[in-house]
Amino acid sequence: MMKRCLLIFLGVMAAASSNAAETPEAALAAHMRAINTLEADQMLATQHFPFTHLWHDGRSDYTATAAEFEAIDRSVLGPEWHHSVLDDAKEVARADSAVTYLISFSRRRADNSLINSFRAIWIATKVDGDWRVQFRHGVLPLD
User: How many Cα atoms are found within 13 Å in the side-chain-facing hemisphere of 73?
Assistant: First the structure.
């Protein structure tokens, strides 16, 4: 519960500022908000490049530069999806310029009812003082 409150607080703080994310946790919250918009410019503002998404089945989406980026295709989120919630983020490894998290998140309907919950690995990196997500792996259903 404490971690969820912290993530919500960081998300509010990041939303209140147009500046770059100052912490890796704020970068995670900003990235989840950007996913919820499904808008490429919002996603771009929360990602470092090259960006890699390694899917649970071994497929990999690699985007070398921001110019090559395409927004998430809504169809991969399911017909009932309205938004996602970052429920938890557990730090797995930390360096000065990269932090790896095991996250759990839930996909929700418009009435906020749960569709399903997942876990994934997200890595936030710091470039020129700016924290953003640079790697995502998986979307594994929570048991």
Answer: 3
Cis bond before residue 50 (omega within 30° of 0):
yes
Q: Which two tokens stand for residue 73?
A: 């295709």
Angle CA 38–62–123, to nearest 5: 75
Cβ burial of 110 (10 Å; 0-12, 13-18, 19+) is exposed
| Residue tagged 């395409």 (tokens) | 70
Domain boundaries, the chain: 2-141
Class of domain 2-141: alpha beta
pTM of the model: 0.83
Q: 30: part of which helix (H) or strand (E)?
A: helix 24-37
Dihedral sign of CA atoms 77, 81, 83, 88 in order: negative
Following CA atoms 36, 30, 69, 124 in sequence, which dihedral angle do they give, to the nearest 10 degrees? -130
Q: What is the pLDDT of residues 69-88, one digit of tens each?
A: 988 889 989 999 999 999 99
CA 99 to CA 134: how far, in whole Å?
A: 10
